[in-house]
Amino acid sequence: MNVEILTAIIAAVIALASTIISIYGQGRITKLAHQLNQQSEEKSRETKVAEIMARYRDPLIRSAIDLQRRIYSTVRLDYLEKLYQRSQAEQNYAIQHTLFLIAEYLGWVEILRREIQFLDLGDIEMNRRLMQVLFKISDAFFSEKTDSAFRIYYGEQRAIGEIMISVGHTTIDSTKHECIGYASFVKRFNDPEFAIWFGRLKNDFERKAEGSFTNDERLIVLQHALIDLIDFLDPEGIRTPKEERQKISSVTT
């Protein structure tokens, strides 16, 4: 075979091999770049979730603790009945502050939901577990497995949370939302458009305070679910001692 032809063939083979290697290498680089980009996005989402949780963990835990304590004292220590035997001011406080504790919890949940709703969190285990615990509480408020006392429909839960939100500190990058305090809640309770969201619930707690209602099953299930949320957000008992997380006994879940 002519040397020139042989040289040309060898050069062509080398060029083809180089092209194949280049294409393969480019494909590997593209694939690696895609994987790194996915990992970066996942890390970014996890970081964002961690930032949101760091911002709202404490107020959410505090509201859950306060609410479960009120439920415990209402069911086991006759808190409402005792205050209802006193002055009119104490009767008003007993009901309005109990309603406030429920509304405050729903407010922080709504704030958290709004903060994370535009994030793609489907692959983040922490988010899935948190949503499961929060839904358990939401379902306890609504559940039709017991009578209708103290029931709050899902839409009403969102609505109550919405009217509890106030805008806090605002920066160029973000706005920190907060819940209104008890003083603002009491003031706004005189507004019929605000108070209408608490009508049935107020009547139920008044019946409880008067001693004419004794079915506490929904409240007990709700208290159990709140304890589960506290355990999830504060597993080491840093923000509240574990001995203060006693679940009310004698309930079928």
Strand content: under 5%
| Helix/strand structural class | mainly alpha
Mean pLDDT: 83
What is the helix tally? 9
The biggest sheet, with number of strands, parallel, antiparallel or mixed sense and barrel status, is: 2 strands, antiparallel
**Uncertain spans:** none
Backbone CA Rg = 29 Å
* Helical proportion, percent range: 55-70%
- Sheet with most strands: strand arrangement: 1-2
Instruction: Work out the count of structural domains.
Output: 1
Question: How would you spell out the order of helices and strands?
Answer: HHHHHEEHHHH
The end-to-end span amounts to 89 Å
Can you count the beta strands?
2
Shape: elongated
What are the defining features of this structure?
253 residues; mainly alpha; two-stranded antiparallel ribbon
Fold topology:
Blueprint: H1 3-76, H2 79-84, H3 88-116, H4 125-142, H5 154-163, E1 165-170, E2 175-179, H6 182-188, H7 192-195, H8 199-210, H9 217-233
Antiparallel strand pairs: 1-2
Structure write-up:
The chain has nine helices and two strands, in the order αααααββαααα. It has 253 residues and is mainly alpha-helical. It has one domain (57-244). Strands 1-2 form a two-stranded antiparallel sheet. The radius of gyration is 29 Å and the shape is elongated.
In short:
The chain is mainly α and 253 residues long. The protein has helices at residues 3-76, 79-84, 88-116, 125-142, 154-163, 182-188, 192-195, 199-210, 217-233; strands at residues 165-170, 175-179. It contains 9 helices and 2 strands, in the order H-H-H-H-H-E-E-H-H-H-H.
